[in-house]
Write a structure and sequence with these properties.
The protein is of the alpha+beta class. Helices cover 22% and strands 41% of the residues.
Amino acid sequence: MHAGAFRLRALTAGLAVIMGCSACGASPPDAGTLLKQSSQRMLNLKGFHFQMMISGFSGSSVPVQNAAGDARPPDLRAKVNLKEGGLLLEVEVVFAAGGVYLKSFTGGWQQLSDQELAQFFDARSLFDSTAGLFAAMRDTATPARGSVERISGHDTYPIAGSVPAARMHRLLDPIRDQGTYQVTYWIESDNADLWRARLSGKLFDASRAATIDFNFSNHDQAVSVSPPPLG
């Protein structure tokens, strides 16, 4: 074989290898690293839209069935569906400037005391910078990455793991503080945006299972929340 032909064949083989590697794309991210990156990303957002839904057994200790709104923690505004006497009631709630305000279907805005809030739903803890969901991502044990799943039009990696019950009790007070719970986070690897999170286990009763689903959108769109006019 002539030297020129040998060099040409070697060059062709090298190009084929390069093209093949390019088609493979980047390696999937490490589960633990992606969790930490997403935790920091979500904690630093200027604002986001959230939806929360509780399914399964929750009992009388958790009157909330679902909530949706906009947040820039610790401030947020949301519409909340409450279970009361077999009925589903929608109310509006605002957490702003250290105060809590409620508007029911029967009247205008009223400010809630700490005692009244304790019987209702303190959503501030959900996204608190130390006790909330985004901070809890760093405390997830044995994280494992799944295959790519498309959520809201975005390619995400589901990261599954477990979190101590006492840690999730800090997130939402009615959650039992015994044992561990399973959690999955759907994270976009390019920018570490969290699009969905799911907490499951015997959250509110030692013998009955429940699930809390969170969905997020409008990442880093500025949110401003102010106290509403009373009355």
